[in-house]
TrEMBL record:
Keyword annotations: Glycosidase, Hydrolase, Signal
Family, similarity comment: Belongs to the glycosyl hydrolase 20 family.
UniProt name for this protein: beta-N-acetylhexosaminidase
Enzyme class at the top of the EC tree: hydrolase
Included range, full protein: 4 to 535 of 762
Species this protein is from: Nonlabens arenilitoris
Keyword Signal among record annotations: yes
Length: 532
């Protein structure tokens, strides 16, 4: 730790004092190439903004940022001096790539897509002073940046079932993702402890499945459990869901809904007991963990799920629909006449093949609507659905198996991607689910397993940080668990592979803290200790 501190002090003092106080370029995720040139651009009263192409989302984003930062209207007419230009450039082949050239005269952003221009805007904002509203002068260093992402899929997940977060926070989370050039928000909407999306056809999901009878839950193998009898929960209305999707779209973020099946379904079964194999009246789960009440593979359940997915697909334009598939105990299926009958009729070997039958049937339905499924790596057991993308969480073996079978994979192993795990061994860390995932370990994550050939490696779409919220009750706590580890994840997802310099990264993280304060984002500070 002493060594890190020394190197930070050295980095702070080693730069020679420039004539004007420039923000030294410190961009996260690190661009593919960044060259600092002499001079700087100054944003003043006369600076204009020019959209030479139809880069609508990126242009609007930058315009509203600048209006807010400078507290003035922006003249958007073309001029050839003192202007920030968004310009189409067909030579930039990457669909999310861009160049930035800033000089004393102008700042030119070049890209062949709105997405590329949007990421250029994010880099440009990071070249501006963190506290831009209170800055007396707005200098931008003269630079040449050439950039494009390493992976197409750069995701963050949020579990809103175990604890619920309001729409304002969901937007703040999405904004933070956009700032770090992440492009997929995985919204974990249903689980045993609460169903959080309005489904008009099934009002009991709102009346019953969305609420549980305590705010205080312990893990299923902790004893005793403490309950406070206070009703806890809520759900997002379809109108709110639409609002979130539009907000994300304006930031080039796709929203992937997750509707869990056949396990993690206790809340839905509490609302409609006929969806389970026992028919018993049960409560929305009152503990954390894995539960035996899972969907029964009968026709009524399939109809229910298809109807739910109809409403979900109507709302979400995402090509991918996540259908869970994880942690589904087969206990009830073993003794259920219905489940055993389906096994027999379809010539299945066991309950694992039945789960596979279940998932494949749902996949067929989703494919018939022009969408594709993502499932957790348990969907490999009993036979993988033909067009599924596997989200590998229990390690990387699932990803290897899936890629070798020609399937796309997304890497989210607990070892490097679980932001619900502790990030430091300090005694005063707030209670977390367990595990240990320090910043450096996230930073050193290599998402391409060595076992894959170069061709198979192409099937790794990208990476994702997961935020399960059993022990994360407030939005401040979500932020604390996510920052700074999301910085490392964004860099794994975006920046070129090859030599990584953790201390250099940490100095950029330090620089970012001021920006987080301005954005009112809570973060874990000084948790840069080396692994082990
Ligand atoms: C496992 S990851 C789960 C979640 C828990 C998480 C806690 C996965 C597909 N299932 O239900 O919240 O562990 O880390």
């Amino acid at each position: 730790r002493f060594l890190i501190l020394c190197s930070l002090i050295l980095t702070l003092f080693s730069c020679s004092e420039p004539q004007v106080k420039l923000t030294s370029p410190s961009i996260i995720p690190a661009p593919q190439s960044l060259q600092v040139n002499p001079g700087h651009f100054t944003i003043n009263e006369e600076t204009t903004l020019s959209n030479n192409d139809d880069f609508t989302a990126s242009y609007n984003f930058l315009l509203s940022f600048l209006k807010d930062a400078t507290d003035r209207d922006w003249d958007t007419k073309y001029s050839d001096n003192n202007v920030i230009i968004l310009e189409y450039d067909s030579s930039i082949i990457s669909k999310e790539g861009y160049n930035i050239i800033s000089t004393d005269r102008n700042i030119t952003i070049k890209s062949s897509t709105d997405a590329g221009a949007f990421y250029a805007v994010q880099s440009l904002i990071q070249l501006m002073p963190a506290d831009i509203k209170n800055a007396t002068e707005i200098y931008i260093p003269a630079v040449t940046i050439k950039d494009e992402p390493r992976f197409n899929y750069r995701g963050m997940h949020l579990d809103v079932s175990r604890h619920m977060f309001d729409v304002d926070f969901i937007k703040k989370y999405i904004d933070a993702m956009a700032m770090l050039k992440m492009n997929n928000f995985h919204w974990h909407l249903t689980d045993d402890q609460g169903w959080r999306i309005e489904i008009k056809k099934y009002p009991k999901l709102q009346e019953i499945a969305a609420y549980r009878d305590s705010t205080l839950l312990g893990h299923y193998n902790d004893t005793p459990h403490q309950y406070d009898g206070k009703r806890y929960g809520g759900y997002y209305t379809q109108e709110e869901v639409r609002e979130v999707i539009a907000f994300a779209k304006a930031r080039h973020i796709n929203v992937i809904p997750e509707i869990e099946m056949p396990g993690h379904a206790q809340a839905a079964i509490a609302a409609y007991p006929e969806l389970g194999c026992t028919g018993n009246n049960i409560d929305v789960a009152m503990k954390w963990g894995v539960f035996e009440d899972i969907y029964c593979p009968n026709e009524a359940t399939f109809t229910f799920l298809e109807n739910v997915l109809d409403e979900v697909m109507e709302l979400f334009p995402s090509k991918y629909i996540h259908i869970g598939g994880d942690e589904a105990p087969k206990t009830q299926w073993k003794t259920s006449n219905v489940a055993q009958k389906v096994i027999k009729e379809n010539g299945l070997k066991d309950e694992y093949e039945l789960q596979s039958y279940f998932i494949q049937r749902m996949e067929k339905y989703i494919n018939s609507k022009g969408r594709q499924i993502i499932g957790w790596d348990e969907i490999l057991e009993g036979g993988l659905a033909p067009n599924a993308t596997v989200m590998s969480w229990r390690g990387v073996e699932g990803a290897i198996e899936a890629a070798k079978a020609g399937h796309d994979v997304i890497m989210t192993p607990t070892s490097h991607c679980y932001f619900d795990y502790y990030q430091s061994e300090n005694d005063d860390e707030p209670l977390a689910i367990g595990g240990f995932l320090p910043l450096e370990k996230v930073y050193n994550f290599n998402p391409i397993p060595e076992e894959l050939t170069a061709e198979e490696a192409q099937l790794v779409l990208g990476v994702q940080g997961n935020v399960w919220t059993e022990y994360i009750k407030t939005s401040e706590q979500v932020e604390y668990m996510v920052f700074p580890r999301i910085f490392a994840m964004s860099e794994v997802a975006w920046s070129p592979s090859g030599e990584r310099d953790y201390l250099e990264f940490v100095s950029r993280v330090e620089n970012f803290n001021k920006r987080l304060q301005v954005l009112n984002i809570n973060y874990a500070n000084h948790l840069y200790e080396l692994e082990g």
